[in-house]
Amino acid sequence: MALLAWGMLLFVVRASGELCSDDPSDMSCLQENKMLLSKMQKLGGARIDVEDEKTSMEDLMADETNVEEYMAKDSASPWTMCFGNLDCKILLGGRELFKPPRENYRDNCIQKNCEIKGKESGKELQWDVNQWKPCDKFFIGRFQGKCVPKPTPAPTLAPTPEPTPEPTTSPTPSPTPVPTPPPAPFWTKPRITNADCEKEIPKKNAKNYLSDSQMRRRGKDYNYRDFCIQAQCVAKGKNWNQEKWGCGDDENGNAECDGYCE
Fold first, then answer.
1. Is residue 141 helix, strand or coil?
2. pLDDT exceeds cutoff 50 at 184
3. Structural contact between residues 5 and 45, judged by C-beta atoms closer than 8 angstroms
4. In CA terms, which of 96, 137, 150, 248 is 20 to 30 Å from 185?
């Protein structure tokens, strides 16, 4: 019944011209409003108490539940109901749905109607402001708009993390080689005879191992085997201590000797 009353009220308002509802304290406006409400009651509309001068038509029509019931009709159509600036202002009570406000107030009802259609259908709808068309042929000024799904917002991409730089590794230093300790002093082996030494070291190479200045033993104490004793010492980084030597006879009775390298 209430919806029928609102429909009749909108018809009466459109038929009666401009409704001065912007200033409820204006007595002339209030009187005119009462006259319009009286017309609606005569047409069989809902009973509306107009005794309280502070109750305006906007307060009655702008109730959110009533607006949703009124705009939920024909929710399957993509096109909204038809709205003019005046009847829309009565329905919404002057509330602005657009920021900044649009030039024609009826755009608020078109947008609101799309939202209610979406609520009824389980979708999120909004008015495509580029799709609208007039409803009347006689310049009453009512228009309707087409409802479309709200665009899905693009997901916020996670920032690409900066790659973790590979740690700069210090070059592995080459290990300091452990110095080879010099060999311990030793006695040459085996003991050797003069004849055997001449076989190992030819005379032309003998002084490569022991020069005359290195040999202190000369004369009767000089023996060719001394070159071989010194050669063993030099091969291991030592020198023959010519004061340390030992001799004996081999199986043939020939003297064979060794020396101490240090």
1. coil
2. yes
3. yes
4. 248
